[in-house]
């Protein structure tokens, strides 16, 4: 609901001040008026008695100069007498209604008695002027009796009036006491009202300020995830709160942007480091390959010579061995690309298997299970199967007396091309497995024995950085090891350095 | 806490309104305040002044009640004045602007006669209640016919077996209307008893409520042949009955009382009191106002208004 008054601090304080002032003035005014009114009513109650006493005084102001005039013929007394007589005539009411009120009826009787008194006083003055001594002497006696009687009657009526008003006076006291108590309560309630208005005004300002203060404290500690202040205070405070909310949100957004940028830069840095490491790895591999190639070229030529010699000597086994070895070397020397058709890898693996069969005719069983149709459909990183098999041949059957088995299996489970190399050797310790599967390169000087396997693992991670399960090792002590490569055929390999 | 404080102005506002309402209510409902705003008083036709003896006994009270109710019914203003201690008020009555005077002249004094004459001379109607001290064509009497009262007492005494019935009448200042000045009661008694009338003694009790007891003892010790004691005041009746019981003279001395108080009726039923004369003060008071109003309205009224008496005896109760 829209407030009738403007919602500014100035307007609100002014409104509360005026309201408090108005309440105070109104109720104090009311109490004052009520008290004055009650006093007036109380005064009216005694007006009757005052009026009667006033008449009595006036009569006294006639009787005294009358006596003086009769004894001294004083013109001053006469003028006073005449003046007071006229005043009294004007004072007493000329309309004397008969009403059902004893006091009024008794007063009425007094007014008539006063009429008689004034008539007799006038007659007395005339008798004095006419020097009718006997008559004015008798009249004076009579008027004096009447004067005293009127005075006595006035006193009686006043006394009756006072007695009658005792109950009224009691009612007045009860009423006045009640009004005083209510007045006190009204004052307290007015103070309470004013104080509560003021308190509300202060609260409407101080609470948002406290919230702002708390928010500022939290922001200073770097906590920007606090909700906005939603205060309904005066406009000024609302504006400050709104500005503060805006400021908080702006800083928050700015800091978030900075953090994102920092994270992005961090990612770039990480990527660079990774690339550098990979570059280093590749250089090492290149070096390794070159080292390996130097001898193979020589060996390859020598092997060809050996093959020819074995043919001349008709040594068939030697001829097969030498031919396979030559084929393997040829394969290794030929593949310079990162990715090769799966068939190339398969061919190289078959040559290697033939060599191994000649080397370990009894102690090693080798099986390959491949769907021929897959070999021409997919490509794979070069030199990834043979190093794994070689790793198994070298490490898996140490201290094993029985014949070992190495099985290679290539499957396709849309969209994964799954290459599995499984042996039933001694297994790889868990710790080593975890170390091997870390997507970082190792210090080869410390673990040169697994360099071929680790090289394969790190290359897989390198080519497929988004596929965390591109390679997995399942190994149990004395049960064997299975190394599974899952190439996501729909993911483009990362081959950019 | 702040949520509670928010409602404080409303609470105090309601409190202020309630207090304001209570203040108004207390002010306007207080009898002191309501007396101020009285209805405009109706103007009445006549103003009559009643000059009565100072007495708060039931007769006067009922009389005043009759006067006041008649004043209300006939729209006449009534003021009461003392005739006993303040005969000056009667002297000044002629100057008081009143339309009529009712006087209860329980005693004949020259001053009272003079003042009443003066009032009559001023042309102000005068009603004499119960006792007629001035016989004038402009003055009228209202009240009980004492001769008839005496006859009623005589008739009650007749049932006694004695040849000569000795009677003691005890008048009272407490009931000053039954004055012995005119001897009307005595005349009424003698008129009925005729030859059987014995001695007739009269006494008077003061305002002291126990004076009748003293007087009864005195009376019975002075003369042992009193057959009937007649009392003109209800209080004196009860006190005298108690004295007769105490003296073990119930039956040997008969009592004819005054008034219809329950205790008196009980004594009548038991046979301790022979009978009681009951006047009607309310009717006397009411008739007084009626008469004064009538004089003012049409110039005359009945010269004598008998408000009557009633007699309570054991037989009448049966």
Written overview of the protein:
The complex is a heterodimer of chains A (497) and B (318). Chain A contains twelve helices and seven strands. Chain A has 497 residues and is α+β, with helices and mostly antiparallel strands. Chain A has two domains: 9-211; 281-488, 2-Layer Sandwich (Heat Shock Protein 90), CATH 3.30.565. The two termini of chain A are 67 Å apart. With 318 residues, chain B is of the alpha/beta class. Chain B contains twelve helices and twelve strands. In chain B, β6, α7 and β7 form a beta-alpha-beta unit. The radius of gyration of chain B is 27 Å and the shape is extended. Chain B starts with a helix and ends with a helix. In chain B, 45% of the residues are buried. The chains are: A alpha+beta (497), B alpha/beta (318).
Q: Which helices and strands, and how do they pair?
A:
The complex is a heterodimer of chains A (497) and B (318).
Chain A: H1 9-45, H2 47-72, H3 75-91, H4 102-129, H5 133-220, H6 235-313, H7 316-334, E1 339-341, H8 342-359, E2 364-370, H9 372-377, E3 379-381, H10 385-395, E4 404-413, E5 416-423, H11 430-437, H12 451-463, E6 471-476, E7 480-488
Parallel strand pairs in A: 2-4
Antiparallel strand pairs in A: 1-3, 4-5, 5-7, 6-7
Helix pairs in contact in A: 1-5, 2-3, 2-4, 2-5, 4-5, 5-6, 6-7, 7-8
Chain B: H1 2-29, H2 31-36, E1 46-52, H3 58-74, E2 76-82, H4 87-91, E3 100-103, H5 110-121, E4 126-129, E5 139-143, H6 146-157, E6 165-172, H7 184-193, E7 197-205, H8 211-222, E8 228-231, H9 234-246, E9 254-258, H10 262-270, E10 275-279, H11 281-298, E11 304-306, E12 309-313, H12 314-317
Parallel strand pairs in B: 1-2, 1-3, 3-4, 4-5, 5-11, 6-7, 6-8, 8-9, 9-10
Antiparallel strand pairs in B: 10-12
